[in-house]
Amino acid sequence: MLRFYTAGESHGKGIFAYLEGFPANFPVDFDFINREMARRQKGYGRGGRMKIEKDRVEFLSGVRLGKTLGSPILMAVWNRDYKNWEEVMRPEPGQLPPEKKVTRPRPGHADLPGVLKYGFDDVRNVLERSSARETAGRVAAGALCKDLLRRLGIEVGSFVLSIGSAQVPMEAIEGKSFKELFENAENSQVRIPVSDPEVEETFKREIDGAKAKGESLGGVFVVFATGVPVGLGSHTQWDKRLDGRIAQAIMSIQAIKGVEIGLGFEAARLPGSKVHDEIFYSQERGFYRLTNNAGGIEGGITNGEPIVVKAAMKPIPTLYKPLRSVDIKTKEPFEASVERSDVCAVPAAAVVGEAMLAIVITAALLERYPADSFEELRLLFY
Amino acid sequence: MLRFYTAGESHGKGIFAYLEGFPANFPVDFDFINREMARRQKGYGRGGRMKIEKDRVEFLSGVRLGKTLGSPILMAVWNRDYKNWEEVMRPEPGQLPPEKKVTRPRPGHADLPGVLKYGFDDVRNVLERSSARETAGRVAAGALCKDLLRRLGIEVGSFVLSIGSAQVPMEAIEGKSFKELFENAENSQVRIPVSDPEVEETFKREIDGAKAKGESLGGVFVVFATGVPVGLGSHTQWDKRLDGRIAQAIMSIQAIKGVEIGLGFEAARLPGSKVHDEIFYSQERGFYRLTNNAGGIEGGITNGEPIVVKAAMKPIPTLYKPLRSVDIKTKEPFEASVERSDVCAVPAAAVVGEAMLAIVITAALLERYPADSFEELRLLFY
Amino acid sequence: MLRFYTAGESHGKGIFAYLEGFPANFPVDFDFINREMARRQKGYGRGGRMKIEKDRVEFLSGVRLGKTLGSPILMAVWNRDYKNWEEVMRPEPGQLPPEKKVTRPRPGHADLPGVLKYGFDDVRNVLERSSARETAGRVAAGALCKDLLRRLGIEVGSFVLSIGSAQVPMEAIEGKSFKELFENAENSQVRIPVSDPEVEETFKREIDGAKAKGESLGGVFVVFATGVPVGLGSHTQWDKRLDGRIAQAIMSIQAIKGVEIGLGFEAARLPGSKVHDEIFYSQERGFYRLTNNAGGIEGGITNGEPIVVKAAMKPIPTLYKPLRSVDIKTKEPFEASVERSDVCAVPAAAVVGEAMLAIVITAALLERYPADSFEELRLLFY
Amino acid sequence: MLRFYTAGESHGKGIFAYLEGFPANFPVDFDFINREMARRQKGYGRGGRMKIEKDRVEFLSGVRLGKTLGSPILMAVWNRDYKNWEEVMRPEPGQLPPEKKVTRPRPGHADLPGVLKYGFDDVRNVLERSSARETAGRVAAGALCKDLLRRLGIEVGSFVLSIGSAQVPMEAIEGKSFKELFENAENSQVRIPVSDPEVEETFKREIDGAKAKGESLGGVFVVFATGVPVGLGSHTQWDKRLDGRIAQAIMSIQAIKGVEIGLGFEAARLPGSKVHDEIFYSQERGFYRLTNNAGGIEGGITNGEPIVVKAAMKPIPTLYKPLRSVDIKTKEPFEASVERSDVCAVPAAAVVGEAMLAIVITAALLERYPADSFEELRLLFY
């Protein structure tokens, strides 16, 4: 059983990932992990902080001389400017000058429900943890899982389909392999899966336009996994269905409001004969399909086709353009302040989506092929 | 901690729901539960079986003299025609005539991945459990939760937005209360939230048309909860976020391929200022919003507004119109057989969606409000 | 992941066991299971009820034509005299004549803390579930696990070491194989592991003497497993240590107050050189030990030697000889009534101990060896 | 739901504790926590390392300005001499000179089963995690829980009953309050609950004698909790019984081989009338008992009396006096090496026992009185 949690506050000492149940003797690729960290920080339209912080992972436990020990893996992504925040964020007791207390909850954030739930008088006690900076821990743990999967031939990737009203033309995608789409996305500043300067420009203009208006933007991205074996997940109990687990993992990413598997909502509009993937067989390939409307999962079980997940991200709730809100102390209305300055984080969220999908698939893999060590897993898997 | 599982095969002795952690001394409303069972079985376009089986719940444990005991609740929905299936489905050993073995997996079902995962030579070993009949257990347990919630002022309901290409006009919904929409849905054969014979007719025609062509249809439905208190779920860990839990619960329903919370995919298209719900305050109402684009959840925590979830159901994979598949024994191609005859089960799925939402909310409620007994819960809740 | 729960009240419709995650295609041995049920009901000094109820297991789900389906297994042990209890125990609402309410909590039972926790005015709401009759469900599920294990060469058994002041002489045990000890226990009315009429007589006299005095007796029993592979459990996290899991499972049995693994408390008295099992190696046997003071577990991991667990059972809290207590309604003192009439249930508890050990080992086995189906498990295990 | 895990290797960067679900707004007492850390390191007969390392806790997350945030708490106990171990323990890849590989498993440790389970060629990969140094993390998290409990009037403590053959005379304990016993233990170098220089001397002599012979010693200790409310834990499911959870938590401590609750094994020898605690009532005290043979738990539920747990620790497996073992590489026999030099760690284990008991009680408390914040918990509790 894979256990995965994160800890840490946005401006605290760091963000941490706890990963337990990962096979022993896995050779950790430190560069791969740090590259993944960097991928989360890229993207046209990110604000200033992304430049300050070059996230790197330090292993605090569970890895020795380059290999996993089978014991709990604790990863740290230290916050480089913690020193500047120490007065406000330190664990040690201390009085905060009243003006440093945040009493103004931002619409669209955990701020207000969080403060009411926990009985805080300082919104910072909520926003520090609800911040999307937490996803650094997800990407760190996800990187380890992605690396494990790719050594077994399972590739996890992502690309962006739309940002605000800018859309990738569907015909530019059709017929292309996930490999190609992914490579294009890797070379795009907005993670779109087409190598077309004009389309790229449309996306950038959309972002620039929003920025000019003090607006923020959301978008839609795809996360996929190829090379997935048949039989992960199970139809036998509601909480063992892999589609449900994926939906939870993706929906749990900050600002995600919708998740689709395969055709998703499109499947609700089409007649059955247009939706279900017919089954074929040949001696070389075994059972196979010519379509993948199911997105790789039938009855909660992987069917050997690529897993395809689509996610909708709402615009970042922090705007230059203010929204009305109410001070929790004075109960006076105000216009909501800006805590952070990204216009659009969809490409970053897509990378986080990869991490979460990789974690869920790894967990399902280790339930089907329990493996104390990586060699064992490798052996069982083939 | 609420534990909920189902057991049972579609043509076995029955479907069973196991519910543990439910408060003691809750007065069970048997009629309410059986009405919920009936609601799952209604809907224009259901096949023959719905008429045979009038599902009723028998409590096997956990309830005494009308009240819950705090001990595990086991509910049975006996299959009335088990006798006719005994030869094929009995637990006792026995040779099945080869012709009674199902070797033909249906596209769109768990059939093929299930058979490959578990190493079966009879598809029935999978389809009996992956069948949507399992949702009878979900509705049974969900009914208990719904009943608990409504006594605390939390109403859970659902309605259908579209079936195939038939859509409820958005303007017919706008401005209406959930109460009204729900009441309309209750009076509609296709669970649409408008009392408009013309629209109703469009839906029925859509279903009739599909039936005539040997097709099946999916659709989109809304599940909602009103009266939800602030503070269910938490932003502090990915798997404590209520939106993630809801997404898993809804996506785990058979044939669901998409889940949205609040605006969902629409939120990805709009600028931030059109998406985030501004915050207001008055002495009578406390904090409140004038919009609910968030669907009642911000940062993984309920914000006091109604929870609104949208789900996309694919067409039932069993068609009269055959799809190509391959016999698992002979490896010969064939055209997929019909195991069951519903054209459209969207209204039923919406009722199942209510059950799953009610279970998730109840679980979150019991994590926030201590309640060994219902009186205690009631007291604390107010 | 193996999930195991029970449901059901002592005089309700039945006792039920829910077992999920058990491999598919396992050929269920119905006779074996029912023999296990009978073993739980045997033992010198049991009261009248054991004669009424010949427990038999009915599979409600998860088994088809003699083989497991991989889906949740629900087992029922129906209560044969439920009809006589229906008025008092039925789930349907109904007024109970005040004199049928139990208001007198028995010392040593869950009665009083249970009533206070849940706010009941009828002790029966607690005692029906806390009763040791619940262990019928444990034995049912445990039998399935025991059967799986023995087909992999892992034998789980038990024997009694003492009842009250009657003790099996240690020298009668030393040097004997678990097989022989177990066979002796199977032929003894008090489950002692020696075939010595005199010792048997001592035990019976102890029980008879207690009965005459209106007393009840506890005792000490051993549960063991032979043929256990190296590597179940893990040292890497506190809750993955197999010794901890075993301790929980055994301590959770009604009336158990002490658990030892290997030497147990004896290990606390001896110097290190007398406690730790030296390690040897030969080509035929691989690594092995000449002693087993560790009871088969080092650092929370099985070491290939037999698992040996000792448990202490307190006397059954229901006595003919009354104990002082207080009526929960009137707050008047009284002398505690007799609900049930066993003098000694140590042999039965030992059989329950086997079930719990078998369940814990099976769970650990399935975490180490992937096994969607029994064939797969068998293959991997060797 | 309280989640508690540790991470870290004995000579790695540090030992870490992850604690999630702890109420918000709890004022952390840093001195208290560090005093608890120091208590774990005391005790007559500890080896050299205890002097090097003065463990102190650093909060990496979850605490701000002296108060908990409700978000995951990550605590670090840095290893002060990691620099000296860096070559051997660093996470970064590197070749270890063959002579630095540990190939000699010590009897009584996880060494051999661990190496076989995970397929390691270096025993250090196991022993670094199985080491009792891990308990620093348990004590850190336990200290937070102990502090929470004592503010609610629940005191958790421990004392030693025996070390090797040295025993505290029972008559020296009888009739004394837990408070007094605990205070005595705090002032004793061997944690015995009596203030008697002669007895203290006997214990020290026992330890000195063992040391002279190259031996190690185990012992028996008591962990207790007073002020526990009625109703923690539940009789309704085997894994909800508090006694089972306590047994797991205590048995999971390194080197523990036996756990008793209340009378424990003694209860197996006595007749029922001598075991069960009679129930009394007065208006001032409510229900109460004059005896506490049950150790505070009946039917898996706390009954309001002190929880009393006894644990048996085997001698530390590392001896100066060598034991026979086998090199895992050469398969040659050898006499087992000394990794660490404590003669007796029973007093330290008792402090760890306090931590584990405090964690289990806190978890049960938060299941009965779920509380987002400490104020809420305080309110509910009274």
From TrEMBL, chains A, B, C, D:
Which cellular component terms (GO) are annotated to the entry? cytosol
Q: At the top level of its lineage, which domain of life is listed? A: Bacteria
Task: Provide the cofactor list for this protein.
Answer: FMNH2
Q: Name one GO molecular function term.
A: FMN binding
Q: What Pfam families does the database record attribute to this sequence?
A: Chorismate_synt (PF01264)
Gene3D superfamilies according to UniProt: Chorismate synthase AroC
Q: Which InterPro entries match?
A: Chorismate_synth, Chorismate_synth_AroC_sf, Chorismate_synthase_CS
Protein's GO biological process: amino acid biosynthetic process; aromatic amino acid family biosynthetic process; chorismate biosynthetic process
Q: Where does FMN bind?
A: 129-131, 254-255, 299, 314-318, 340
- Enumerate the catalysed reactions: 5-O-(1-carboxyvinyl)-3-phosphoshikimate = chorismate + phosphate
The UniProt note on the cofactor reads as follows: Reduced FMN (FMNH(2)).
The protein's annotated pathway: Metabolic intermediate biosynthesis; chorismate biosynthesis; chorismate from D-erythrose 4-phosphate and phosphoenolpyruvate: step 7/7
Keywords, in A-Z order: Amino-acid biosynthesis, Aromatic amino acid biosynthesis, FAD, Flavoprotein, FMN, Lyase, NADP
State the EC number(s): 4.2.3.5
TM helices/strands, residue ranges: none
Q: What does this protein do?
A: This reaction introduces a second double bond into the aromatic ring system.
Give the protein family: Belongs to the chorismate synthase family.
Assembly and binders? Homotetramer.
| Cross-referenced NCBIfam families | aroC, PRK05382.1
The protein's name: Chorismate synthase
The organism of origin for this protein: Thermovibrio ammonificans (strain DSM 15698 / JCM 12110 / HB-1)
Upper taxonomic classification of the species?
Answer: Bacteria, Pseudomonadati, Aquificota, Aquificia, Desulfurobacteriales
